[in-house]
Amino acid sequence: PLYPPLAKSVVVVESVTKAKVIQQYLGDMYEVLPSYGHVRDLARRSRSVRPEDDFSMVWEVPNGAWTCLKSIKVALKGAENLILASDPDREGEAIAWHIKEMLEQNLACHVTVARVVFHEITEDAIKNALMSPRYIDMDLVNAYLARRSLDYLIGFAISPLLWRKLPGCQSAGRVQSAALSVVCDRETEIEKFSPQEYWTADTEFETQCSDSSKGICLTSWIKHLNSKKLDQLSISSQEEARALEKRIYSCQFEVRGVHRSKIHKNPPMPYITSSLQQDAANKLHFGAGHTMKVAQKLYEGINLSSEQATGLITYLRTDGFHISHGAAEDIRSLVKQRYGEQYASEDIRKYLKKVKNAQEAHEAIRPTSIRRLPSSLIGVLDEDSLKLYTLIWRRTMACQMEASRTELIQVGIGNPEGDMIFHSSASRLDFKGYQAVYEDTEASGSSENPEGETAHQDNFEALSKLEMKDLVSPVNVNLEQHFTKPLSRYSEGALIKKMEELGIGRPSTYASIMRVLQVA
Predict the structure, then answer these.
(1) Which of 291, 356, 314 lies closest to 512, judged by CA?
(2) Does pTM surpass 0.85?
(3) Toprim domain location, by residue (predicted)?
(4) Is the pLDDT of residue 452 over 50?
């Protein structure tokens, strides 16, 4: 174990912000230095990867990286341990390996070298990581080397051809070219699209009352005509629509079916990188790159009043849906405290959905302390950071809550012959369940209606009064012309979702691929 300290240690992380926060936690027996990301990369020239020579690789060191390495060499004088604490993913493992390799090549690595990983920047997480050091994982490093060499070979082989054939083209790449193909396929579909005309005939019915009181009005949609189920394009012209309107007004109708059902809607799964980027795009109008920039800031640490700087969320590049047992119990405890026992899930919810090619090495994205409410960070975080933190906090709370319960009522209305059937429905929210967290303005400072859902209470009460064989009369037929629409172009969120479905890219690459495609 490297904690408690028995000798001086040098800790290397990736950013200045992270280094400052961790230095506060560890004290003077540790010197925490930043690497500023990768300290070397493949040389930007031909034959930097040589397949004929067992895929040997030629590296080059950026100018700024020499300064970083010099700082590490100076700090190691008098130290006994070099602790490589870069991010807990493939790129982080590669950075640790590069640093070790370069120090050894410069005969400056005379100390014990250890690798530690943590998934959140909190004092407990850092100290626990130091108590469980390990060696550099060469399987991860070799995976990095394989991907890096493939990126190089594909890019350097195809890009010159593209530049000759398509002047102004940027470059080709193992992931970006696959993503670009998806975008191009959608564009081809849009260009081939031919709109088709169709009509709808929404009909307003009124119940026939035996007394002078006003009947119940309800709007219905025609589902069956001439005993055949209609699809979107079944009524394809104004002539057909007018003929249907005339027929509706000439008929008597009755209630032919009343069906009630209970709908249980489970809470959404906790965030992984792709789903956070999609939700941030759809709800906050953040680009993928901006989402990752803000999330990185929340992960690396924020100076909180009356507290040390601390990381507010767990590691942001993940495809795992699991949440640690301790964190899940704390979430359920807060749910019970804020909303009542009945709102917490009966047991810890475990999410097992697999993303294609997922590694699931890390937890889902969640607050490091669920008890740090978004409202407590108003005035501490900038506007975008607070919005993203609130999004994460709500989703994390929701994932350990009970399902919402809705009662659905569906009414079928038909003519005596039964060859013309209309459908009307309404719902009533009986138990909010996880939706309660989205209405908790005290915790977040704002409310949100998840999924844009509404329970049509008035319509539900009206439909509830209907019984089989009740007579109803059409009072208004609303004919409306429509044209089918082509598929829309991919938004960033939609493209990330499609890439995830196809297994293109990794959590760490989505934002950079969006940036490259937009430049191209």
Answers:
(1) 291
(2) yes
(3) 8-121
(4) no
Quickly count helices (H) and strands (E) in the chain.
15, 15
End-to-end CA distance of the chain: 49
**Which amino acid is present at 65?**
A
Q: How far, in Å, are 14, 331, 387, 401, 453 from residue 366 at the CA level?
A: 21, 10, 14, 15, 24
Contacts 24+ apart (CB under 8 A), 236-243: 236/196, 236/197, 236/198, 236/199, 237/197, 237/199, 238/199, 238/479, 238/481, 240/199, 241/199, 241/201, 241/479, 241/481, 242/479
- Residue-wise pLDDT tens digits, 31-44: 999 999 999 999 98
Alpha helices in 251-382 (DSSP H): 273-279, 288-300, 325-339
Q: What is the mean pLDDT of residues 63-74?
A: 91
What gap in Å lies between CA 507 and CA 501, rounded to an integer? 13
pLDDT of residue 508: 83
The per-residue pLDDT for range 98-124, each reduced to its tens digit, is 999 999 988 778 899 999 999 999 999
Region of residue 463 (phi > 0: left; psi between -120 and 50: alpha; otherwise: beta): alpha
Q: How far apart are CA 429 and CA 265, in angstroms?
A: 11
Helix then strand then coil, in percent of the chain rounded to 5, is 40, 20, 40
CA pair distance 34, 39, nearest whole angstrom: 11
Residues with catalytic roles = 315
Q: Domains, the chain, ranges and CATH? A: 9-141 (3.40.50.140), 144-193+488-519 (1.10.460.10), 197-266+404-438+447-483 (2.70.20.10), 273-398 (1.10.290.10)
Q: What is the per-residue pLDDT for 63?
A: 83
Per-residue pLDDT band for 304 (boundaries 50, 70, 90) equals confident
- Residue percentage of the chain with pLDDT more than 90: 76
- Report which residue type is found at 507: P
Cα separation, 416 vs 420, whole angstroms: 9
Residues in the chain, overall count = 520
